[in-house]
Amino acid sequence: MSSLFEENYDTGYDEEDEEFYDEEQSRDSRARRRRAQALASARRRAAARRDRRLPATSASPPATPPRRAVVNAVKELDLQTQVQQDTLQSAIAAQNRKFDRAALSTVATLLVSEGFRTFGTPDNTFVRAGIQIAPLLAFPAGEKRKGIGGVIRHPAFYGGLGVLALAFIDDQRKRNSAAQNVDVLGPSRLTVGAVDLFVADVRDASGKVPANVTPAWESSNVAVAEINATTGQVTAKSAGVAIISVKAGDIVRRVRLEVVAAGGK
Fold first, then answer.
1. 236: buried, middle or exposed (CB in 10 Å: 19+, 13-18, 0-12)?
2. Is the dihedral of CA 238, 241, 247, 248 positive or negative?
3. What is the maximum span of the chain, computed from C-alpha positions, in angstroms?
4. Which residues of 39-76 are buried (b: 16+ CB within 10 A; e: fewer)?
5. Regarding beta strands 189-191 and 240-248, do their DSSP bridges make them parallel or antiparallel, or are they unpaired?
6. What is the pLDDT of residues 26-78, one digit of tens each?
7. How far is the C-alpha of 183 from the C-alpha of 94, rounded, in Å?
């Protein structure tokens, strides 16, 4: 009997213990699998979050400049702006001064021309040219240059040089076409009441008759002999002596005319 009890007892204990062990093993296995799955899922989520944050977190945040550097940069920008404004204002003021000088030069040129028309042109060609050049001195130069380059580029230089060259050519033309020799043809003796004619033979440097020279006649004693200033026609008025003068350009020629009474010697 005791052997049967021991056999039954041992057999029942073994089966129950085995079932409990198997159940415990099964629960542990399922728990390990769940933990492994949860761990793997957590790793995947962490990796996904890391991948999403990687572009944003890979770039380093911009460095914030120090406050003093910002203040200095603002001051530098203000200084540059002020310098640019001052430069622009200076350029505008310089341009306005040039306009004023150009207007002054133009007005002076008009006044010179009107003065020549009112008071006459100077006889000396180079004096006339100098007066005409004077207004160019007030004319502004285009670009400021130092030395000989600045002098050559000034309107007063090349304008004055051109005026002087034209004045020299005009002076040479006048000299060549001016009267160089004057011969007077006419009577040396007339009776009272007689009418005669004086003629001036005017020649220039080339021996030609200048077209722009008109002889002007004059009598030193119109009571004795009266002469027409343009034609040279002379009329004997009374007995005596008169000096007949003719002026052609800058040349003056004089001849003696004697007037005697009718029938006298």
1. buried
2. positive
3. 225
4. eeeeeeeeeeeeeeeeeeeeeeeeeeeeeeeeeeeeee
5. unpaired
6. 777 777 778 778 777 877 877 777 767 655 444 455 556 567 877 788 878 88
7. 64
